[in-house]
Amino acid sequence: DYKGQKLAELIFQGIILVSAIIGFIYGYITEQFGWTVYIVMAGFALSCLLTLPPWPMYRRNPLKWLPVQESGTEEKKPADRKPKRHAKS
Fold first, then answer.
1. What phi-psi label fits residue 53: left (phi over 0), alpha (psi between -120 and 50 degrees) or beta?
2. What is the DSSP string of 56-73?
3. The pTM is what?
4. What is the pLDDT of residues 30-46, one digit of tens each?
5. Where are the alpha helices (DSSP H) in the chain?
6. Which end of the chain is more exposed for a tag (fewer CB within 10 A), N or C?
7. Strand, helix or coil at 85?
8. Dihedral angle, C-alpha 29, 35, 36, 41, nearest 10 °
C-alpha cells in the first residue's frame, strides 16, 4: 500500500542519514575515513533489513483491486470482423 511505501522510505532515509552523521563524526574524531564508510555501510544494511522484506507494519492499508472482467477476452470470428479497406493508389 502507499502508506506503507511512504513509511518504508522515511525509515530508509532516516537510518541512512543518521548513520552518515554518526559515521562522519566518528571518522573525524578518530581520523579514519574507513570507519565512516563502515558505519554508513552498516546503516545501509540495517535499513535494507528493516525496509525490504514485506513486514506487516507496511501492509496495514491494502489496496482494493477491481474485480476481474470476463468480456473482451474472446476471439472474434472472421465473419464478425470488418473487411480492411486498402488505400487506393
1. beta
2. GGG-SSPPPPPPP--TT-
3. 0.68
4. 999 999 999 999 999 99
5. 2-30, 33-51
6. C
7. coil
8. -160
Q: Which of 55, 57, 58, 54 is nearest to 1 (CA)?
A: 58
The answer to whether the beta carbons of residues 42 and 27 sit under 8 Å apart is no
Question: What pLDDT is attached to residue 63?
Answer: 86
Give the C-alpha separation, 10 to 4, whole Å.
Answer: 10
Whose grid coordinates read 532515509? Answer: 13
Question: In the structure, what pLDDT confidence band is assigned to residue 1 with cuts at 50, 70 and 90?
Answer: confident
SS3 call for 12: helix
Q: Which residues contact 44 (CB under 8 A, 6 or more apart)?
A: 16, 19
Distance CA 39, CA 50 (A): 16
Q: What distance in Å separates the CA atoms of residue 31 and residue 36, rounded to the nearest whole number?
A: 10
